[in-house]
Amino acid sequence: MPPRKAKPAAKKPAARKPAAKKAPAKKSVAKAVSRAVKHGKTPRTATGKKSHPAQMAEAAEASRKGFKERTEAGHRAAGRTPPSQKSGIKTKGAARVIDDAIRDDFMATEDSKLLQTESSHADFTRSDPWRVLRIMGEFIEGFDNLATVKKGVSIFGSARTDPADPQYQAAVETAKLLAEAGFSIITGAGPGIMEAANKGAKLGGGLSVGCNIELPFEQGANPYVDRLVNFRYFFVRKTMFIKYSNAFIIFPGGFGTLDEAFEALTLIQTGKIYQFPVILFGRHYWAGLIRWFQSRVLVEKKISPGDMDLMLLTDDPAEAANAVIQAWSAQQSSPNI
């Protein structure tokens, strides 16, 4: 029997070269943004409006106009023509000098110029190093004018509060009690609650201080200010409020009022100031904020339980004044002072 022929060895399939991995396509930021806008995937404002640059500019303009209207409403409620509607008016105790050399438009203020990106072609008088000298000078002027204020209490609140409003009357009474106890009253010098506090200081025989801020319109100082200091920069002014105050009393107000309240609370929380009462006057007005702190911020451990006790709430001028007086005594006996 003839031998079987050996089967030819099966050819091994050639090893396949691994396919080259395709580099992931780079996403176009512009296209991603365009798709998000097309499909409505944009953030919304607190009132539900879709956010876009035009809407943001419109909101900012409306906010500025509203702020001016509230300030003017406070002057009108007190029976005065708003300084911003007068020509050639000189605010009592203030020399308001506008340096046109560093302005590009009539809405600009020193603060807004500082916060803008510096042009590489700007001359030295428009540069940030030059503004540092202005800022130094403003600190010196503030320290010089307020150096004799030893027992200060800053009172904040809405500029549009009417003199017939119970909160206006409460601010007058609170400031009066504190002035009678030897405290100086410090405000933002404007109308509304600020005016009420300065009025109370005068009625109580105390020093009435106003720290005015440069705005795109003439805010003017209320007529109850004894010592007026003008500021170009918000942060310099805020430093003066803290440095020369032993307590903050926060009456119902808006963003500016909230800003001062949270500034003080943060400084207490971080150990920068000691025995510094932050008194929220008007329980009903602040109730929603306090509930939000308790139900959301505290529950999610964004703050500690002890932080809730940094805020005092009252509707009584005598209670507010007493809290300040007690804190003053504690400040003086503390080794930290």
Q: What fraction, in percent, of the residue positions are helical? A: 40-55%
Structural class: alpha/beta
State the distance separating the first and last CA atoms.
Answer: 119 Å
Q: What is the CATH topology descriptor of the domain at 135-333?
A: Rossmann fold
Mean pLDDT: 81
Number of helices: 10
What is the CATH class of the domain at 135-333? Alpha Beta
Q: Which CATH-level-2 architecture of the domain at 135-333? A: 3-Layer(aba) Sandwich
Q: What percentage of amino acids are in beta strands?
A: 5-15%
User: What is Rg?
Assistant: 30 Å
Describe this structure in words.
This protein has 337 residues and is α/β, with parallel strands linked by helices. The protein has a domain at 135-333: Rossmann fold. 42% of the residues lie in helices and 9% in strands. The chain has ten helices and seven strands. The chain has helices spanning 29-38, 53-77, 110-114, 128-146, 166-180, 193-203, 234-243, 255-269, 283-297, 317-333, and strands at residues 152-156, 184-187, 208-213, 227-231, 247-250, 278-281, 311-314. The termini are far apart.
SSE layout and pairing:
Elements lengths: L28 H10 L14 H25 L32 H5 L13 H19 L5 E5 L9 H15 L3 E4 L5 H11 L4 E6 L13 E5 L2 H10 L3 E4 L4 H15 L8 E4 L1 H15 L13 E4 L2 H17 L4
Parallel strand pairs: 1-2, 1-5, 2-3, 3-4, 5-6, 6-7
Annotation keywords:
7 strands, 10 helices, seven-stranded parallel β-sheet, Rossmann fold, alpha/beta
